[in-house]
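To: structure subgroup
Subject: Chain for Friday's discussion

All,

I'm putting the inputs and outputs inline so they're searchable in the archive.
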Amino acid sequence: MKKVKTYDIIDNFLKLDTRLKNIESLVKTNGFEDVQNQAFSCSNKCRSSYNKIELANLFYILMDEGILYFDSNDAKKSRTNFQEFMSENFTYNDNEGNQKIISTISRQFSECKGYTYKVKQIRFLDEFISVMQERKKRLESW
C-alpha cells in the first residue's frame, strides 16, 4: 500500500475545493439557485391545514365529481394535471404541525380511488360536511 504524503492530501483537497467553488459560481451566475429556492420553498405555495391524504381526498373528490377539472374528456390526463398542480402550488400539514412540500401525491390519489380506503374517505367527507354545515349556520344567522 502506497503511503500518501500530507502535502498530496492537502493539495488534492484544495483542488477539489476550487472545483466546487467554480461550480457554485456557475450555478449562481445562471440563476439556478433562485429557481431551486423557489421550487423547494413553502413560502410561495398555498398552505393547508390538512395532512397529505386529506388534501388528496379533497381534490380527488372535487375532481371525481367534475367540480374541478383540467380536461373533462380525459380523466387520466386530468388526474395527472391535478397531481402536478398540487405539487407545484400546495403544501400540507405534517404530523408535527409543519408545512411540507408535496413532492408527489400519486400514492394518496390512488388511496382515494381504492375500495379499501373508502372508510377514510367517508370519515373525511363527514368532517368536511360538518365544517360546511357550521359555515352555513353562521351565514344564516347574519
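Points worth raising on Friday:
The CA atoms of residues 87 and 103 lie 6 Å apart.
The chain has a mean pLDDT of 82.

D.
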